[in-house]
Structures are given as structure tokens and as C-alpha cells.
Amino acid sequence: MIALTLPEIRRLLARLVLREDHPADHIWAWSTWRRRRQHQARLSHYRRRGHPLT
User: Fold this and answer.
1) Cα gap 36→52, rounded to integer Å
2) Other beta carbons less than 10 A from residue 19's beta carbon
3) Handedness of CA 24, 25, 29, 32 (dihedral sign)
4) What would the pLDDT profile of 17-31 be if each residue is shown by its tens digit?
């Protein structure tokens, strides 16, 4: 999973402070899912181009 980026931290803080529509556990779960999918996309990108994965 990719690390938290500054924009993601800002988004999380804003959502957690304003928490109008979703509970905190949903916000954290969505962020985890999103970062996992970004990691999978990054790996797929490199695999398609034949780069070694480290």
C-alpha cells in the first residue's frame, strides 16, 4: 500500500472534522481501499512495461 500523501492527509482531516455524511470508520476504510488500489495500479503499470518489481 502506498504511504499517505499530503493531499490525502488534508482530505482525511477535512472529512473527519466535517463528518456530515459518513462515520469515521467509513472514511478510514475508504482511504485504505483507495491507497491499496493505487498501489495495485502502480504495480500493474510497471509489470506491463516489463520493469522489475522491487
Assistant:
1) 20
2) 12
3) positive
4) 988 788 999 999 999
